[in-house]
Design goal:
- This protein is mostly helical and 281 residues long.
- The protein folds into two domains: 12-177, no CATH class; 195-279, no CATH class.
- 55% of the residues lie in helices and 6% in strands.
- It contains twelve helices and four strands, in the order E-E-H-H-H-E-H-H-H-H-E-H-H-H-H-H.
- The strands form two sheets. A two-stranded antiparallel sheet has the order 1-2. A two-stranded antiparallel sheet has the order 3-4.
- The longest helix is centred in the first third of the chain and has 33 residues, at 29-61.
- 28% of the residues are buried.
- Mean pLDDT is 76; it is low at 1-9, 16-21 and 180-196.
């Protein structure tokens, strides 16, 4: 991993075994605050609704006010009221943790707030965050919140270059800015080691040797590669699917060195598209 020399520099770079660097813009404290604010408002409204429902149920159960079950008086709360209170505490926990877990799972590392702020949770190696990472980082959120208002989390974020809270360290995750404009044509701008100049005669010869059946690729294949790379860098394509597409393209163009993992798949797809753009169009 390559880190910036500047404190809290919003850049995170991954060096792959193929000597290709993939750059990500790290979500700073400001953009994460916006996302957290939106999520907090949503959770606050949900808790208000939950309190309203609880008050109605308690009234049906015989408690005159919400506070009655908690006060010492001559009339002990019924077992029904006690059950409702226990369910309320459980629902609070499920709501406060389940909200983040659910949305980050179904939206590939985003909650409503993160989507508004255009940020996303990924693993430190650039892969989409999985079930275990999302669960761990959100369970540790309770520690980050101490003593109040994300006190521990903010201190931790201030004193590390990539604004990671304790939950991120425990889960091996990082929050990045969503690369909404990244495509094959701009991939080189996010990858310093990718050369965007016109290919030399030697490179063209190497492409012809590596992709002997390149002309079997179609314009549709080329656009599919572009879209897949773009969506992968937004965290919307699983690395398994990236590798699966790369192997399919490799078979179709008769590649002599098919990819083996997600990093080599990404590099392969980029090179295959570049070769198609220069040789087949």
């Amino acid at each position: 991993m390559v880190e910036s020399n500047q404190w809290l520099q919003e850049e995170y770079t991954i060096d792959t075994p193929e000597n290709v660097s993939f750059g990500f813009d790290v979500a700073g404290i400001g953009s994460r605050f916006i996302g957290a604010l939106v999520d907090t408002v949503i959770l606050g409204l949900a808790l208000l609704l939950l309190n309203a429902i609880l008050g109605f149920v308690l009234e049906l159960a015989g408690a005159e006010t919400f506070a009655d079950p908690f006060l010492e008086n001559e009339q002990d709360p019924s077992w029904i009221v006690g059950l409702v209170i226990a369910l309320y505490v459980l629902l609070n926990f499920v709501l406060l943790t389940g909200y983040y877990i659910l949305f980050e799972l179904i939206w590939n590392g985003q909650t409503v707030g993160k989507r508004v702020a255009h940020i996303r949770v990924v693993r430190v190696n650039g892969n989409p965050a999985g079930f275990l990472e999302i669960v761990v980082r959100n369970l540790i959120r309770m520690v980050d919140f101490l003593p109040m208002a994300y006190g521990v989390g903010l201190i931790t974020m201030f004193f590390n270059r990539h604004a990671r809270r304790l939950g991120d360290f425990a889960a091996g995750t990082i929050v990045i800015k969503e690369q909404t404009t990244l495509s094959l044509d701009t991939l080189g701008q996010a990858s310093p080691s990718v050369d965007r100049r016109q290919p030399s005669d030697g490179e063209i010869a190497a492409w012809r040797e590596q992709y002997p059946l390149l002309r079997q690729l179609t314009a549709g294949d080329y656009e599919l590669i572009r879209e897949t790379l773009r969506r992968h860098d937004q965290g919307q394509v699983d690395p398994y699917m990236l590798n699966r597409l790369a192997k399919g393209i490799a078979r179709k163009c008769g590649a002599t060195e098919p990819p083996t993992d997600w990093q080599s798949s990404r590099r392969f797809l980029y090179n295959a598209a570049e070769a198609y753009r220069h040789l087949a169009e």
